[in-house]
């Protein structure tokens, strides 16, 4: 088996030695609306469609129906692969707000972190998942107590390692500071990719245009440049421009 896992993001794999290091966890970090969910849907969808790799999308915020709709904008029909059990969307969003779910895969509303992780593991074993997305880490925490959070993230790391899948852990940057929300996330991540909106040239006073950029901040076992690359969200999803300059 190839030791790199193709992200399916045009232009990105060539910047990171052919893909993500297999069986590792990578943090995908960025401020609100920078494209983290689209990136992750693209990763799961192309995995199933182009590389024959099954994937699980564990969602805590958006409902599965919303994700399917978001994906469909780019022509990604998740349902098709869900029917074949090549993709599973695991619904942990409905339980958080206490509304019923019609999903086949969901986390019960009285579940604790162990129950949640054992459900994740069970599905991963069942469909032989090679890719897992956790959307998102801040929403995954059951407690805001630092010791508890550290335990939770450690347990998540152990379970993900046990599955041998290659995972994307979505986290957020607040006010452009750092690249993880709490700092614990980095412990279990072998790589960090951040997504940004940067202010471009002002065409008129006070009329700044924002540009999207992506940055591979850390990637073990990988020779990569420390540089921000421009990307755009096209009708086929995210496209990174390896030769492009942001300014
Ligand atoms: N069809 C589309 N074409 C181009 N851009 C789009 C399209 N759909 C969404 N976008 C852009 O992508 C953004 C949303 O991306 P996404 O949901 O992946 O962000 P996110 O980083 O997950 O945000 P959050 O932190 O709020 O979850 C929108 O704000 C919009 O700018
Ligand atoms: Mg999102």
From TrEMBL:
Alphabetical list of InterPro entries matching this protein: KaiC-like_dom, KaiC_dom, P-loop_NTPase
One GO MF term attached to the UniProt entry: ATP binding
UniProt xrefs under PROSITE patterns: KAIC (PS51146)
Gene3D superfamilies: P-loop containing nucleotide triphosphate hydrolases (3.40.50.300)
The organism's place on the tree of life at top rank: Archaea
Domain KaiC: 3-247
This protein's record includes keyword Transcription regulation: no
Keyword terms: ATP-binding, Nucleotide-binding
Protein name: Circadian clock protein KaiC
Species of the source: Candidatus Methanofastidiosum methylothiophilum
